[in-house]
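Limitations

Structures in this collection are predictions, not experimental determinations, and the ligand pose is part of the prediction. Treat each record accordingly. The example that follows, with magnesium ion as the small molecule, is included so readers can see exactly what is and is not provided: the inputs are given verbatim, and the output is the predicted complex.
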Amino acid sequence: METAAAQIASPPPPPPPPTHVAIIMDGNGRWARARGLPRTAGHKRGAEAVRRTVETAREMGIGYLTLYAFSSENWKRPAGEVTDLMGLLRLYLRNEVSNLNRNGVRLKVIGDRSRLGPDIVALIEESEAKTAGNVALTLVLALSYGGRQEIVEVARRMARAAQNGTLDPDAISEADFAAGLFTAGIPDPDLVIRTSGEKRLSNFLLWQSAYAELVFLDVLWPDFGRAELEAAVNDFHNRERRYGASAG
Ligand code: IPE
Ligand code: IPE
Ligand code: MG
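Predicted complex:
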């Protein structure tokens, strides 16, 4: 049994991890360029960083991990690069889902599926169904995702409902609006991390990140790992979240 003195001396328990961490995985191209390799090589190494990060997030007890894998605007990239990225996505969904399932990870994909290939959509649906009962960690993959497009789509649906008389415009609340987003039922991100030294959101979770803490890291995404995620979470723990109230 511990003595009273030992109890007093024991350090306070670590703060609970943030419930929802979202990451803008940037810098694959620069990682490859620095090594004289094609951009695809950077994306391949980026996929390994995804595996590591999912594993670490689960071990840290994070509830939701959202990864920005492909933006609405990334469709503007050269066809060859888009094909390579879609190929890596296929591989990830084919090879990784049984592993996710074994580790109690639930997969959810957000974004405009109409622009993805039908085989990828089928793989997504299969993976989501297979992992639907898992509760250790929810991995949200943002694919063909754009925050503005997401918001406009909710506005369109609400305008249609108002037009046909099933929705009273004056009754629309923030909660109603949030319930129409891809992220319905998922808590807002507490912490948004962007790698590669860029300091912008690039159309990521615009509504949902209203009060997220932002951490910008210089590390390129393929080099991201446990130490970087832990450092970002430590940084988060040192922030004071005020939500508009006065400082305490
Ligand atoms: C992130 O790395 C991956 C995607 C956006 C799909 P980038 O491909 O944007 O790499 P940089 O920013 O050119 O280094
Ligand atoms: C944001 O990175 C999108 C993803 C990480 C998927 P980008 O590399 O596309 O962003 P910009 O063009 O530098 O803003
Ligand atoms: Mg980039």
